[in-house]
What does this fold into?
Amino acid sequence: MGAGVSEVAAPVLDVARIRRDFPILSETVRGKPLVFLDSAASAQKPVQVIEAMTDTMRRQYANVHRGLHWMSERTSDAYEGVRDKVARLLNAASRDEIVFTRNSTEAINLVAHSYGRGVMTPGQAVVISEMEHHANIVPWQMLRDAHGIELRVAKITDAGELDLDSLASLLADGRVGLVALTHMSNVLGTITPAETIVSMAHAAGAKVLLDGSQAVVHRRVDVTALDVDFYVFTGHKLYGPTGIGVLYGKHALLEAMPPFMGGGDMIGTVSFEHTTWAEVPHKFEAGTPAIIETIGLGAAIDYVEAIGFDPISAHEAALTDHALARLATIDGLNVLGRAQQRGGVISFTLDGAHAHDVATLLDQSGVAVRAGQHCAEPLMRRLGIHSSARASFGVYTTEQEIDHFVDALDGARRLLVA
Amino acid sequence: MGAGVSEVAAPVLDVARIRRDFPILSETVRGKPLVFLDSAASAQKPVQVIEAMTDTMRRQYANVHRGLHWMSERTSDAYEGVRDKVARLLNAASRDEIVFTRNSTEAINLVAHSYGRGVMTPGQAVVISEMEHHANIVPWQMLRDAHGIELRVAKITDAGELDLDSLASLLADGRVGLVALTHMSNVLGTITPAETIVSMAHAAGAKVLLDGSQAVVHRRVDVTALDVDFYVFTGHKLYGPTGIGVLYGKHALLEAMPPFMGGGDMIGTVSFEHTTWAEVPHKFEAGTPAIIETIGLGAAIDYVEAIGFDPISAHEAALTDHALARLATIDGLNVLGRAQQRGGVISFTLDGAHAHDVATLLDQSGVAVRAGQHCAEPLMRRLGIHSSARASFGVYTTEQEIDHFVDALDGARRLLVA
Amino acid sequence: MSTDATTLYQDWVLARARAPLHAGRIAGGVTGVAENRSCGDSVRFWLKRQDGRVVAARHETEGCAICQASADLIAGLAAGLNEDRLATLWEEACGVLESGVAPAGRQGDAGMLLGVFAGVAEYRARHRCAMLPYQAYEQAARAG
Amino acid sequence: MSTDATTLYQDWVLARARAPLHAGRIAGGVTGVAENRSCGDSVRFWLKRQDGRVVAARHETEGCAICQASADLIAGLAAGLNEDRLATLWEEACGVLESGVAPAGRQGDAGMLLGVFAGVAEYRARHRCAMLPYQAYEQAARAG
Ligand SMILES: Cc1ncc(COP(=O)(O)O)c(C=O)c1O
Ligand SMILES: Cc1ncc(COP(=O)(O)O)c(C=O)c1O
It folds into this structure.
């Protein structure tokens, strides 16, 4: 495990109290209490986030940046205050290194577009890996096809870890401009060795983007300690609203990059002949931002920081151990990946049963899991499967829920695999 | 006035009842009741919108499209249901012609990027006008600089209307690929003759994009009657949340366009060598969408449709008439533009007083107006001014508020212009 | 309204999925394929015609139990019904997917197909699983 | 905490904005310019030095009353104080912008500048109006 992902202490998390913060957890589904094991796709929202958003809309709202009046000033303060919070969360050197986007996907596209087309030159290469989410594959393919950048794919081991030899050989010719890798796989749960990746890449003259969509939910991330060049995450997986994501970029890199989209707020001065850009990070935030959602993200960050990342990591590690132990008792069940360092995400197949049927039968028991390709079709191909089911855990997940899930899964197996 | 903007009937709107739907209107600012005349920058939100969003987060939330379980199915239904609502709102031929974006700015950038670079060819031209918002200027400048597209600027008359002779002469050589114009000016209030623009452009072989950010709030828009090729608007000005906007595009055009961003949800099948795209409109919606905000936009559309566009237009026309009459009594006050067709937006300067000072003094009376360049720097230059103040009206604005505003404005004048 | 496990995954559905009657290929037959890209499922249909009529139908299906059963039932029906009657039955099946109610008293593969569709009705995300095979059939039918 | 109209727009602020004492250019002086792009305001400063000391300062300001008054006060101070003392005063003024409280008993242009800054403190969007002139001054100072 790299620096920037803190070692797990063992403080215990008061799950019962946490669950009271999430109104949706008292809902029933098909007559059964909801057991939500799909947090890796999108997490549920605590009242603190819901209230931050409603308070904004009920009490203190106007467009930001452009207004001189009280409501606009106050809303701008709240909006810009979240930039400080995100900078603290990631331990960025400066708030100006935080760009707000819609989600991780847009953040990666921004880099692929602006750094890729604006700074990289044809003939250079981008390295990704076999275990990337489509969000960290397709933008680079589009860059390849539009701008003559080579796309190289680092292998993973059969255990589902990044193959560092493969990475080293891809870096060897010095033509790699950017290494873009997941910090935690949304399928295998694997946490990648960020510090090693960064030092290997830097030694070869390449910059590094880490896709922290999953990692940031489970561990404390320190971009300064990691010395990573770009880091992205998405609000809705961190118990925040949809519509808001984050790009961290080192100041000098952001400065060197041309803007991505044009419009209000990202300009210095506009004439028809010539337009100048605003300072970083505003250069990358065209138009009215997702004001209410950004404020919601701020509340989500406050929420997870109040719980603390050490208890969160410890809780998820305990749940994952428990789930892996219980799943091992089910005949014909195969867990995908067996990385040393892993987060609270478990994908599996069941011999003789299709993931869709498994998911529907679990849904009939109130258990929400994901089934399919998890936006990682090339990884499915690498693993030699068409699809899998995935259970993923959040701060509100309990051991009892995992037991209920495993029992329901065993029932599904008995029905489907006769 | 063109087809697609319906004639105004005279039904009266129950403003007192409407105001009760907007909690923020009972707030005070600097000890005075809030008089919010900055709706053109961003409108306030009714409880119906707030509750649609909180209900989603409290009762029925999961990521969309990818899930087989109950929460995901239901959330997908709610999300996709809003696409139907938007299609009905604009009278689009099909729901597949509705693409969700963050805001108008992203919608225009999407077209500039995907239609501009993917379909238009170097040597073609884009026509905009002197009264565009930066959102409808800068993306085309970026296209010009990156892709060899000429940028042509149609003049406006001294009354602040689109100069149709100028437009005709710019279209004459047949090299214009796209005419991108505002449907209603955010500074002058001018409603442009959309039907005439479309028929002139089509006769010259050009497609048309209308920036409906302001227009859609004030009048019923019918994209089919207008025969317009692209139409964009932004949720937060239509009493909806931030973080959600709309691009309407004719199906055949959207089909012909390459994607804008890459990632999950917008793909058909992914391999490292070759990726295929999902069907329109999903091809243009990469990553987890703004689910909660889209559902909020749906509630906003229900809200304005329940009031009805005829009463809304009539109400705003009455307020605008009243405000113009009262403003005419203030010494040295100049209203910008005097278009025949106009919406509820009035910009003005005051001889001997700077817009900033005016805005601050109004703010001290609880009145929120905008002051500055209104993201339309070239228009300010065309009008020969550095900045102006702007009052804009919404469904909740009352005649009393306008009287209060005009009185406060006169007080500011007496103080500043001695 | 709620369907429990036994209604959707009835014995005969699972049996048909596990041991299809019409799996395989037809040498020299026309063929069509359909894929559900979101889960990797795919169905390939083979049809053989004589005097314009379909006299044999086979499928190769990679998919869930619902998709497997639906494919096998459609293959059985394709060789037995003429194309118009199969198209009519298909419309009826799509109606059942909306209503969730299968008409009473229908026998054989047609009855079973309508039963599968009734069972899957309330799982909207699974509708594509049930419908995929017909797309492959239609493609093969057009090809021949 | 609330400042009413008379506190921010006091007579002497408005008077100074309307009839500046130090507006104009200096032939052969060094110059610096600062712009607030969001509203189109701009300030140009001219400085003239003798033996390293600033002996004359003038400004051309296109802007609101706050910006005008601030520019004129800074121009008055620039010719009277040495650069270090003006920099110190500026730091104090920025502090007042945060605190909203001007120190008691300060006289002349310095006292007025601190007064303007105290008045504008709670209008954060207007801080740039008050601060813009100093940026222009600094540029001119560096240029010379
Ligand atoms: C005419 C016009 N176009 C475009 C925009 C941009 O809207 P948004 O900032 O929501 O993208 C606005 C509002 O700011 C506008 O008034
Ligand atoms: C590893 C990883 N990267 C990227 C994404 C994309 O996130 P979003 O859809 O919010 O852009 C996800 C989640 O879907 C993910 O798990």
Observations:
- Chain A has two domains: 15-41+309-417, 50-306.
- Residues 1-9 of chain A have pLDDT under 50 and may be disordered.
- The pocket of pyridoxal-5'-phosphate (ligand 2) is lined by residues A 103-105, 133, 135-136, 182, 186, 211, 213-214, 234, 375; B 264, 287-288 (CB under 6 Å).
- The radius of gyration of chain A is 22 Å.
